[in-house]
Amino acid sequence: MPRPRKRLAGTAEAAGPDNKGPEGKRPKTKNPAGASVKVVNSSPQKTSASKNCGKNLSSYWLLKSEPESQLEKGVDVKFSIEDLKAQPKQTTCWDGVRNYQARNFLRAMKLEQEAFFYHSNCKEPGIAGLVKIVKEAYPDHTQFEKNSPHYDPSSKEDSPKWSMVDVQFVRMMKRFITLAELKTHHQAHKETGGPLKNMALFSHQRLSVQPLTQEEFDFILSLEEKEPS
DNA sequence: GCCAACGTTGGC
DNA sequence: GCCAACGTTGGC
Predict the structure, then answer these.
(1) Torsion of CA A19, A154, A161, A101, to 10 degrees
(2) Which domains does chain A have, with CATH numbers?
(3) A177 CA to B8 C1', in Å?
């Protein structure tokens, strides 16, 4: 059963012991992933004071996938939003993530949370549509498959190193929101303090699974109604 | 195809 | 545990 492969970060060599904990350990740099998964608080009644027991959850995400043919160890990892729509139940497992920070975000995802489906490494990079999480993190089987471009010989069946979630197509964006447009807003917002001032797409550009704040998510949705800038 | 950004590896 | 070399991501 062929399954789509999102071409995501990293190689199967990533070393480092699995970290349990909400947070994998990432090489020094400040900015632990957990810190960026800020509670964005979509529910009106809970206040910033709410204790969340260290369980800060982002409500929204951005997932990168490559919509154009791309060989990785001889396997085409192309997977566009059209490919997602063509899947049974318009659902796919998001396998192949081999970066600890990205993996930890996958593990933080909750049922029904929404994510932007982003087309990367292609002619026109940008946000193509919306998907939602329909199965929370479970072991990524491709880490054990020798023929997979994402095979990781260092991962053991009894303590899988890598995780994946299942996502389902929700809808296309009313218009394709290009990276260029997002970047224009990001630059402007850095000056004005607008909603995209810290967007991970620019501050952590290589992350293939990223959290978005409520403000970022809402602002990007509002762009659908406007003329491309 | 180039190359900047940045995560990972491994020598010390 | 530092850090230079290396490899990958991904825009352009």
Answers:
(1) 70
(2) 55-223 (3.10.590.10)
(3) 32
Q: Which two tokens stand for residue A134?
A: 């329909």
Strand B neighbours (CB under 7 Å) are A 10, 13-16, 26-27, 29, 99-101, 203-207
Instruction: Report the protein residue whose CA lies nearest the C1' of nucleotide B6.
Output: A206
The nucleotide lying nearest A102 (C-alpha to C1') is B7
pLDDT tens, position by position, A149-160:
999 988 989 999
Amino acid identity of A15? A
CA A198, CA A179: separation in Å to the nearest integer? 15
pLDDT in tens, A12-67: 333 333 333 333 333 323 333 333 343 333 334 333 333 344 445 558 999 999 99
d(CA A59, CA A54): 15
Rounded distance between C-alpha atoms, residue A134 and residue A65, angstroms: 18
d(CA A97, CA A75): 15
The DSSP 8-state label assigned to residue A159 in this structure reads: B
* Closest to A100 in 3D by CA, of A219, A11, A218: A11
Take residue A182 and report the two structure tokens written for it.
Answer: 């997002």
- pLDDT above 90 coverage of chain A, percent: 66
Please state, in angstroms and rounded to a whole number, the distance separating the CA atoms of residues A133 and A165.
7
List the beta bridge partners of residue A139.
Answer: A163
